[in-house]
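Researcher: I'd like a candidate sequence for this fold, 466 residues long. If you have to choose between options at a position, lean toward the conservative one.
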């Protein structure tokens, strides 16, 4: 009788194990999302039954202990799976879990749908049917990509709003990590070949290397062009007279020269270029940028020498090439140089003096290394240069003089400088020319003198070439 009862107990226990093994699977769903809220669109998953430590369990009933598949266009999965309570526990195992290994899209999708490949694992205990999104997404890394087919943008919410529409800085000189829109790249592309007319050049320093920051001004604009500065609001710091600044509005292309400063704050300025796209209002200023534009057209009446100081930086960040047209008038020079240091208005190394002309007739192609030197970008041609046709020289740089036998002739012309080449040619013969006249003295910016032959009373032409 005791043996019979023991056999019955064993049989019943065996039946209990069979009942557990035959439990019905439950339907579960999950949407896998990364740490930044982006779903693992078109990703993949593998599911493995595991023990309490995450080690895989196989050859255990119920028999199906592994699943795999692809995530949907929303990063979702749906399948039927046994609850963990359905499994008979092998020796040494105290509980079971499902180990989900999920990877972001990589293979079998167009390249524009591929994200930076990310995989991770999470341990999930399935009890009943339902959604397990939070449990499956535990430990998921951030994913960043764009679905060009559906227009869905999966980026951090701080730099993107809406489908394929990014919030970006409209300033084409921006160096932030914000996303670039079509409008930003178009504006930058247009600016790369832009002409910048710089008027009212009178002399002194014109610095693209300002250390100033944060100045505010209220201005009037008409037709998109800034026409007057109403008031400089006491603000900012680090400005110097001669700094060039741009109002951060419109198309970010205005150019103003600071002409008065109090304790590092601008109190007056001259509009050199009113820019485009502006409306009347108040705006902050930043250092006038010249790293993108290609052509600068200078005009104005010089009352002293003018120096344009380029921004100091590195070979990579501020090395550049430009076309400069010096259409100014007045017997003074315009020089372009590279700043000696950040915020400095002093020239660092070699400089280029721009020849004067009219209607852009003396356009100069120059380049800077961004660190110390500015050089002419026109190739030097050794030997003699034969020029067909004629060479035109500005009227103010040419003239005539008459020799007196063995005389020294003083010729006043403010365009003559130490580096000038003065060409002298015979106009009308007088007396006897035994020795061609020759320069024997020069006062830069004032005059030069010519020594004539003993019996020479001829009339001569001269032309000053800088």
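Model: Candidate sequence:
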């Amino acid at each position: 009788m005791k043996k019979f009862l023991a056999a019955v107990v064993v049989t019943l226990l065996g039946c209990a194990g069979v009942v557990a093994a035959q439990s019905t699977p439950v339907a579960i769903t999950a949407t896998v999302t990364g740490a930044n809220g982006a779903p693992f669109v078109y990703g993949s998953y593998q599911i493995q039954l595991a023990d309490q430590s995450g080690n895989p369990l196989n050859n255990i009933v119920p028999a199906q202990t592994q699943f795999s598949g692809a995530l949907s266009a929303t990063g979702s999965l749906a399948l039927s799976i046994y609850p963990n309570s359905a499994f008979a526990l092998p020796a040494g195992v105290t509980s079971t879990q499902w180990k989900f290994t999920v990877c972001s899209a990589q293979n079998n999708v167009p390249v524009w749908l591929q994200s930076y490949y990310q995989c991770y694992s999470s341990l999930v205990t399935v009890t009943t049917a339902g959604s397990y999104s939070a449990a499956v997404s535990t430990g998921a890394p951030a994913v960043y990509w764009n679905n060009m087919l559906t227009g869905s943008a999966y980026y951090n919410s701080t730099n993107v709003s809406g489908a394929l529409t990014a919030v970006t800085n409209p300033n084409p000189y921006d160096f932030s990590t914000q996303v670039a829109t079509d409008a930003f790249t178009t504006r930058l592309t247009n600016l790369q070949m832009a002409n910048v007319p710089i008027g009212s050049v009178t002399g002194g320093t014109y610095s693209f290397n300002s250390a100033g920051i944060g100045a505010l001004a209220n201005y009037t604009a008409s037709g998109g062009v800034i026409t007057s500065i109403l008031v400089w609001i006491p603000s900012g710091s680090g400005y110097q007279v001669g700094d060039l600044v741009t109002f951060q509005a419109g198309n970010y292309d205005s150019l103003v020269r600071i002409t008065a400063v109090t304790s590092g704050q601008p109190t007056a300025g001259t509009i050199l270029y009113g820019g485009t796209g502006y409306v009347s209002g108040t705006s902050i200023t930043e250092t006038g940028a010249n790293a993108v534009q290609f052509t600068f057209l200078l005009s104005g009446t010089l009352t002293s020498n003018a120096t344009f100081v380029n921004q100091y930086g590195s070979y990579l960040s501020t090395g550049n090439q430009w076309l400069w047209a010096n259409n100014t008038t007045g017997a003074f020079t315009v020089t372009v140089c590279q700043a000696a240091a950040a915020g400095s208005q002093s020239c660092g190394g070699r400089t280029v003096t721009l020849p004067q002309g009219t209607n852009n007739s003396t356009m100069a192609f120059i380049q800077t290394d961004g660190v110390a030197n500015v050089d002419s970008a026109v190739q030097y041609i050794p030997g003699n240069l034969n020029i067909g046709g004629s060479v035109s020289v500005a009227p103010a740089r040419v003239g005539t003089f008459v020799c007196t036998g063995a005389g020294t002739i003083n010729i006043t012309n403010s365009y003559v400088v130490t580096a000038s080449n003065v060409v002298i040619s015979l106009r009308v013969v007088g007396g006897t020319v035994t020795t061609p006249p020759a320069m024997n003295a020069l006062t830069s910016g004032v005059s030069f003198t010519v020594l004539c032959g003993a019996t020479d009373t001829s009339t001569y032409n001269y032309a000053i070439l800088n």
